[in-house]
Design a protein that fits this description.
about 150 residues, alpha/beta, Rossmann fold, 5-stranded parallel beta sheet, 5 helices, globular
Length: about 150
């Protein structure tokens, strides 16, 4: 089955640039829609569930972060639109792997493309691997792309 909806997950790092190129190439080759996606990791700001009890200053900072993310996604989308008919962006707040898989299911994504950080040992144990968790839990194929610096 050729994918008609491809999800490119980005964390805006250099590690995500090779994944962006692969996702764009696949979208062109398959004439697929490309959705560029970022998850603002709520656990890093101390509110994994974003309960209603979140202080106003945190809520304001989160709004500023979301606006910055949307602007960065828009820049990437403009770059990816060269040669692609359909490019969209989306941002969510939550736990990255969980939100990626949830979004993929809700949007009937047929291929997820994402970069890896290549962490090993203690850093991998502490930081975990979003890509690894997505591969384990997604219902569609997941293409993980190593950065050239790994």
């Amino acid at each position: 089955m050729l994918p008609k909806k491809i999800l490119l997950c980005t964390d805006f790092s250099d590690n995500s640039k090779p994944a962006r190129q692969h996702a764009t190439d696949y979208a062109k080759a398959f004439e697929a829609e490309l959705i560029i996606f970022h998850v603002i990791n709520s656990s890093r700001i101390g509110y994994p569930l974003l309960d209603e009890g979140m202080p106003a200053d945190i809520r304001s900072a989160l709004s500023d972060i979301q606006q910055s993310v949307e602007k960065a996604l828009s820049l990437i989308a403009t770059e990816c639109r060269k040669g692609l008919a359909q490019v969209q962006t989306s941002v969510r707040i939550g736990t990255p792997a969980r939100e990626i898989v949830r979004f993929a299911e809700e949007e009937s994504i047929q291929l997820i493309v994402m970069g890896t950080h290549g962490w090993t040992g203690f850093k991998h144990l502490i930081m975990g691997s979003t890509a690894e968790n997505v591969v384990r839990t997604a219902r569609c194929p997941v293409l993980t792309v190593k950065s050239s610096s790994q």
